[in-house]
Design a protein that fits this description.
The complex is a heterodimer of chains A (about 575) and B (about 120). Chain A is mainly beta and about 575 residues long. In chain A, about 10% of the residues lie in helices and about 35% in strands. In chain A, strands 1-31-30-29-28 form a five-stranded antiparallel sheet, with no helix packed on it. In chain A, strands 32-33-36-2-37 form a five-stranded mixed sheet, with no helix packed on it. With about 120 residues, chain B is mainly alpha-helical. In chain B, helix 3 packs across helix 5 and helix 4 packs across helix 5. Classes of the chains: A mainly beta (about 575), B mainly alpha (about 120). At the A-B interface, helix 3, strand 27 and strand 31 of A face helix 1, helix 2, helix 3 and helix 4 of B.
């Protein structure tokens, strides 16, 4: 150790005490470590605090005053009483229309619905089947485009007329796993862009997928790559819940639970694949092409003024056979270039399952504390991931987004993003709740700044804070004039350990406007009357056929438009 | 050393630990827009968004502990950035240059210095 220089020592002497400790280096270093440790706390020893770990008595209060927004903005409650709302759009007359998902983690199936808020009345436009979640909606060219998640039968892109007439533009999308079909967003080219989430957390089907519920329904389901890949030498050993005598199962990447893979094994890419953004031609035969893959759960999609495709992507969780720690959610800014299946020109690969926000996954920082550092699943990466446009907090669940396009609202060109909030402890550990707010992102710098948050000493949902503000923002959309930002609030979703407990009828719709904006007198909020929906009974499911690995590249075989009774 | 002097570091450490338990909210809706007229603060904010925010969102606790109520001196924060501690990784110079670390620490201190008005809590 170098002796401190005399002038520095003299300065420290003048401040008192410190030189004595430097004369005893063992104590000095110990104190340094103690100060750092004390100020940081010990991560491993500190308890986890997730936002869903709240007591909820079943009754949600709603009070705009409990939501803080920047000076000059005001919050209004538009409607309440939704069950699992996930998306919003505006019809030809500028009326807000909301989709209720019809499914939520926790294996809660309800009825997916498209609802129109017409003055003081809520009108039901359409109902779906037990194949939710409906995750998003966009009104375009006189019809509503809806992303049907496909938890039971695979995802679909639906086109719904104002009278409720429903047509499927694409069916059988591989989205029966952890994540579903999301979006959609109509691009400047008139085509329909949408996301498909991955089946798993990080490429390996494991016992965590049993907790989601889908592995019982679809025991052969697994992830599908968007291009040919060769696998590294990795197998994951878990308990085998299929047995009764404590058997173990070995599972490889991109394989069904309990299926081994060999080092170097070729897995053929396919379109559609999982963990991808795809695009659908609006006209028959609705050709399907791949825009990007290697995403995890591309939930929110929207286009910038200059035609870039912004995509929110939920980062890895610390769960399952291949847990990943410290993975942020990501905002990607993609060129909406698409390729057909089998094209020699590869689509953009964003890094899943071997990169985290552009960084190799085998960096020590992504190892769960006390756990192993995840190793790549691919023998060679199929590309170089792009640089993220922005990062969001780990476990924040960055979901729906929109761009401010009216200077009267402010923050022109910035992206507003709904952060649904964590589902800890099912997804990992947090020292304090994360998300449960709306942020705005400066796309030039990648800086995300809070825009709408609950008041209180900590960040969290209203149910945890004991107030009447935001619960779980899941989507945002500006009105057609771009003057008001509507915020879809999913409602209360509790976490009892790994088990999700969504609370029906607790969803809400808020809006945020400039205080001084003329002609926007507050409307009295609409409360949805409880609707007697038929009980949802899942029919015995025949597992959907899954492309096994290895597979021959699937030709693009878009599902023909199919009338739905 | 007198007994009182011997226990002082421990007391200080415990005080720091307790202080680190809070969240320390500083978001624009609660405290108003941050003054970014100092180029170092503006630059540090961008570095923070890329390197720090996903574990310490807005300086609050999240995956990692709160920074907004962390009473560490600047040199000690620099030490932790460069060397890491516990679950926090080290950020080497090839990842964040010395100049960027300077800006980062200026931003973190500016964020920490922002008080939350009681009326907005």
């Amino acid at each position: 150790m170098h002796a401190p220089d005399r002038s520095a020592r003299a300065l420290r002497d003048a401040r008192g005490g410190f030189p004595r400790r430097t004369a005893r280096p063992g104590r000095g270093i110990a104190l340094l470590v103690l100060m750092l440790a004390a100020s940081s706390g010990c991560y491993v020893l500190r308890p986890s605090h997730g936002g869903g770990e709240a007591d909820f008595d079943g009754r949600r209060e709603l009070q705009p005053a409990d939501i803080a927004v920047p000076p000059g903005y005001a919050v209004e409650l538009v409607a309440s009483g939704f069950t699992f709302p996930t998306g919003i759009t505006f019809d030809a007359e500028g009326r807000p229309c909301v989709v209720e998902s019809g499914y939520c983690y926790g294996e809660v199936f309800t009825v997916p619905r498209l609802l129109r808020i017409a003055g003081a009345e809520v009108q039901e436009i359409a109902r779906g089947a037990a194949n939710g979640p409906w995750t998003g909606v966009q009104f375009h060219d006189g019809r509503f485009l809806v992303a049907e998640g496909g938890a039971t039968e695979g995802g679909r892109i639906l086109s719904i007329g104002p009278d409720g007439t429903t047509t499927a533009l694409a069916t059988g999308l591989p989205s029966m796993g952890d994540h579903h079909v999301n979006g959609p967003a109509v691009g400047p080219d008139g085509r329909i862009y949408f996301g498909i989430g991955t089946a798993t957390n990080s490429g390996v089907v494991g016992t965590d997928n049993i907790a989601f519920g889908w592995l019982d329904r679809h025991p052969q389901f697994h992830d599908i790559p968007g291009a040919d890949v060769r696998l590294a030498d990795q197998l994951f050993t878990t308990d085998d819940p299929r047995g009764t005598n404590g058997e173990e199962a070995e599972t490889g990447a991109y394989s069904a639970f309990g299926s081994r893979v060999e080092p170097g094994q070729l897995v053929r890419g396919a379109v559609p694949c999982t963990g991808a953004v795809l695009v659908l031609a609006p006209e028959p035969p609705h050709a399907l092409e791949l825009v990007a893959w290697g995403l995890r759960n591309p939930f929110g999609l929207c286009f910038t003024e200059d035609g870039r495709l912004l995509v929110t992507d939920n980062g890895y969780d610390e769960r399952g056979s291949r847990p990943v720690w410290g993975a942020p959610d990501v905002l990607w800014s993609l060129e909406p270039r698409s390729v057909a299946a089998g094209s020699p020109s590869p689509a953009t690969w964003c890094g899943w399952p071997d990169f985290v926000a552009g960084h190799p996954i085998d960096a020590e920082t992504f190892a769960p504390p006390g756990g192993d550092t995840p190793q790549p699943l691919f023998a060679e990466p199929p590309g170089t991931p792009p640089e993220p446009a922005a990062l969001f907090p780990c476990h924040a669940s960055a979901n729906g987004l929109d761009i401010s396009r009216n200077a009267a609202f402010g923050h022109l060109g910035e992206a507003f993003v709904a952060l649904f909030g964590d589902q800890v402890p099912a997804t990992g550990k947090l020292l304090s709740p994360v998300g449960f707010k709306v942020v705005r992102v400066d796309l030039a710098t990648g800086v995300a700044e809070d825009f709408a948050v609950n008041r209180g000493d900590i960040t969290g949902p209203a149910s945890l804070l004991g107030n009447a503000g935001l619960e779980r923002p899941v989507a945002v959309r500006f009105d057609p004039e771009g003057e008001m930002l509507y915020v879809v609030d999913f409602g209360v979703l509790l976490q009892d350990g790994a088990h999700a407990e969504p609370q029906r009828g607790t969803g809400a719709l808020w809006r945020i406007r400039r205080e001084e904006l003329p002609g926007t007198d507050p409307v009295p909020p609409v409360a949805l009357a409880p609707v007697a929906l038929p009980p949802v009974t899942l029919a015995p499911v025949t597992p959907a056929p899954v492309t096994p690995a290895p597979v021959t590249p699937a030709p693009v075989t878009p599902a023909l438009a199919e009338d739905i009774p | 050393m007198k007994p009182r002097a011997r226990t002082a570091p421990l007391v200080a450490a415990i005080a720091l630990l307790l202080a680190a338990c809070g969240a320390g909210r500083r978001g624009e809706p609660l405290v108003g827009p941050m003054d970014l007229s100092d180029p170092a603060v503006a630059s540090g904010r961008t570095v923070y968004a890329r390197q720090c925010n996903h574990c310490h969102p807005g300086g609050e606790a999240g995956l990692g502990p709160s920074l907004n109520d962390k009473l560490l001196p600047r040199w000690l924060m620099r030490f932790q950035v460069r060397h890491g501690l516990g679950a926090m990784p080290a950020f080497p110079e090839e990842q964040v240059s010395d100049g960027k670390v300077d800006d980062l620490l200026t931003y973190v201190k500016a964020l920490r210095a922002t008080e939350v008005p009681d009326t907005l809590k």
